[in-house]
User: Which sequence fits this backbone?
């Protein structure tokens, strides 16, 4: 061997003939089953390959690869392993000269197929063939991934073979092989998979991830969750962090594509998305922040629809029957994902996400008449209640920064909140700004949710958690005052009963108000405030226990027929609370002012819907034969535009509706274009009046009728006096 190596190095032009000769001998020995000589020939080729790096090595490599292919095509496991080991040695060599005509397609296919002999390996007690196949794939990747002259290994035709093969071996840990030693096929596969993904550029991520999704689909691996989560953890930690959002986008698209699949499959995808999004958020999520929440909210809505109709077809009595408990598990997974992902975002983005969610789904009372129209056209009564509960749970998950939610999972009068061991941090500047700008939307949402007749115990429990978490996570002195006013307003709501709420609902609102005031008085640590709250609670325990959570939020609550006698010492007094808190530096004037749901400037702007939206809404209502007493033109008018003359407004809208229904499209387009042209003309006139040309050293020019007019020329053409130039 030493002589052969010396000869090859001395006369490199002979390498191709040496390779051709050894190739011929090996082929003959394989055919005659002279395996000892086969091993000698391959050993010689390996050593020559390692020793020679001259320009003429390419022709020798062709002979070498031809022999490796011959061994891999053999049905003898030992020859397959021998060929694979030789290829791995070759893959680790960095060649000095490029090759323009070499192809590795066969090796990709063959190494990907070797795992199919798993049964033989297990029966014989050997896993060497699988190990060889994995090492071969690793070698192909190393040899081709950065070689621009080779066929693109990232093409779908190659990835569709490589990735499923790796996943099959990776899955072996879940099946026949439980060994986790560094030399096991599963561990070697994971290293190979990580290496492949680590080399993926921006444009290759999709081709690498798509086969993973297809493999999990075809083998029903979403439902188990564990393997799917493990796969995507490997992916997210292996790819470059700036490419993470591409994987998130593919998962979101795959979730949408499986919208009519079983709830367990969708829940599995959501769980994977939860893990992947949490990892991606620490690096780069890119433009997908709102897309994540948009998709999850859409899936939440679909799940509620499926739960209501009982089928995935959206038609009651359809063929694809749903399971309520599975849909509920999916909804919980979606809410956990929203909360977990939101907690990884910066504070300002969490606030924006909260606003996005509150604006995405109609909130009770935001546009009363418009919401009524939407509910009438699209929602069922029970669906409305379900949607509102999900919204509340999402808001709680977004606000819960320190995992305090489980401590407020049920409503109760807590005598000492120190036993809860709450995690409390100072409210951040971003949160203060958010509450200053958008707190009224949150308060209004809580207040109007309590007014809904369909609110049940889960709604009130979630409302309590929401109030508690706002007090802990987002509170400053002004917020505390407003929350106390809100709690007292809820008491007044239950007392006056302007919304004709059932007695159990009114008792529940009283209980919610009491439980929250008991909590907030301990958070403020004002003794006289705590004393008043505890005195009222003690009086209720003696006289009217049905106004406390322990007696109303049970399976069979004992409620009276009416609440007409609720007065006096069983009520929290706004004047008393304002007095005691005023002595501790709180805003007495604000405390004494009753809370009334307010519309912010943003709400007023959002109420001004376009005429086109009004028309489309009215046409849809009419097409569904909605009764006039439920949705009238008058209610739509009050929701969308400011009040003006009723008759004039009706006539004008009738003309607009008639025009948009009967006029041809070209006329409507011309009308809109004319208005745009008129606007531009007016703007040009304003600019001509307000914007004057800069003074010019070139003087003035004479206009018609003896008037002078300034002439503006470019600065670079101006002629300045010598004294002005230096």
Assistant:
């Amino acid at each position: 061997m030493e002589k052969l190596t010396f000869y090859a190095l001395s006369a490199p032009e002979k390498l191709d003939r040496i390779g051709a000769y050894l190739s011929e001998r090996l082929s003959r020995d394989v055919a005659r089953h002279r395996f000892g000589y086969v091993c000698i020939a391959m050993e010689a080729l390996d050593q020559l390959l390692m020793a020679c790096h001259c320009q003429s090595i390419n022709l020798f490599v062709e002979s070498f690869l031809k022999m490796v292919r011959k061994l891999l095509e053999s049905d003898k496991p030992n020859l397959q392993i021998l060929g694979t080991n030789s290829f791995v040695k070759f893959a680790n060599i960095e060649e000095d000269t490029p090759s323009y005509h070499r192809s590795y397609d066969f090796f990709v296919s063959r190494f990907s197929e070797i795992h199919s002999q798993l049964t033989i390996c297990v029966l014989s007690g050997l896993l060497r063939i699988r190990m060889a196949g994995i090492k071969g794939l690793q070698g192909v990747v190393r040899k081709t991934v950065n070689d621009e002259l080779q066929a693109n290994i990232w093409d779908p035709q190659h990835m569709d073979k490589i990735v499923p093969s790796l996943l099959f071996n990776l899955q072996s840990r879940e099946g026949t092989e439980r060994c986790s030693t560094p030399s096991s096929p599963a561990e070697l596969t994971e290293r190979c998979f990580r290496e492949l993904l680590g080399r993926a550029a921006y444009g290759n991520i999709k081709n690498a991830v798509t086969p993973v999704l297809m493999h999990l689909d075809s083998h029903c691996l979403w439902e188990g969750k564990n393997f799917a989560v493990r796969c995507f953890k490997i992916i997210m930690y292996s790819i470059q962090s700036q490419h993470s959002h591409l994987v998130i986008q593919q998962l979101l698209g795959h979730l949408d594509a499986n919208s009519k699949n079983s709830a367990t499959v969708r829940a599995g995808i959501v769980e994977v998305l939860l893990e992947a999004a949490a990892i991606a958020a620490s690096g780069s999520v890119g433009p997908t922040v709102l897309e994540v929440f948009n998709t999850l909210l859409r899936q939440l809505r679909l799940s509620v629809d499926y739960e209501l109709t009982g089928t995935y077809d959206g038609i009651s009595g359809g063929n694809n029957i749903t399971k309520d408990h599975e849909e509920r598990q999916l909804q919980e997974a979606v809410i956990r994902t929203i909360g977990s992902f939101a907690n990884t975002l910066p504070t300002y983005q969490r606030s924006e996400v909260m606003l996005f969610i509150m604006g995405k789904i109609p909130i009770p009372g935001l546009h009363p008449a418009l919401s009524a129209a939407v509910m009438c056209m699209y929602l069922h009564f029970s669906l409305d209640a379900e949607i509102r509960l999900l919204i509340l749970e999402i808001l709680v998950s977004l606000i819960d920064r320190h995992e305090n939610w489980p401590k407020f999972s049920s409503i109760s009068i807590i005598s000492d909140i120190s036993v809860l061991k709450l995690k409390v941090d100072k409210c951040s500047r971003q949160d203060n700004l958010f509450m200053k700008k958008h707190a009224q939307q949150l308060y209004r949402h809580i207040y109007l949710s309590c007014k809904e007749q369909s609110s049940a115990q889960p709604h009130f429990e979630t409302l309590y958690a929401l109030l508690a978490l706002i007090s802990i996570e987002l509170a400053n002195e002004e917020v505390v005052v407003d929350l106390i006013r809100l709690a007292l307003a809820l008491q007044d709501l239950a007392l006056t009963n302007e919304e004709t709420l059932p007695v159990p609902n009114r008792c529940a609102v009283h209980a919610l108000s009491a439980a929250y005031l008991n909590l907030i008085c301990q958070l403020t640590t004002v003794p006289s405030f705590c004393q008043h709250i505890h005195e009222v609670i003690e009086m209720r325990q003696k006289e009217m226990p049905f106004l406390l959570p322990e007696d109303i939020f049970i399976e069979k609550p004992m409620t009276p027929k009416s609440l007409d006698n609720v007065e006096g010492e069983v009520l929290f007094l706004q004047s008393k609370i304002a007095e005691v808190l005023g002595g501790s530096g709180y805003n007495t004037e604000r405390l004494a002012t009753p809370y009334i749901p307010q519309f912010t400037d943003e709400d007023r702007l959002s109420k001004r819907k376009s005429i086109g939206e009004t028309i489309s809404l009215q046409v849809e209502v009419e097409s569904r034969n909605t009764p006039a007493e439920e949705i009238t033109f008058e209610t739509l008018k009050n929701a969308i535009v400011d009040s003006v003359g009723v008759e004039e407004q009706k006539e004008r809208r009738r003309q607009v509706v008639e025009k948009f229904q009967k006029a041809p499209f070209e006329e409507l387009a011309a009308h809109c274009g004319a208005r745009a042209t008129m606007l531009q003309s007016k703007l040009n006139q304003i600019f001509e009046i307000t914007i004057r040309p800069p003074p010019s050293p070139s003087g003035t020019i004479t206009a018609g009728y003896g008037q002078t007019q300034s002439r503006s020329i470019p600065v670079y053409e101006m002629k300045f006096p010598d004294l002005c130039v230096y």
User: Anything to note?
Assistant: The mean pLDDT is 77. The chain is about 65% helix and 0% strand. The longest strand covers residues 700-702. Residues 391 and 664 are 42 Å apart (CA to CA).
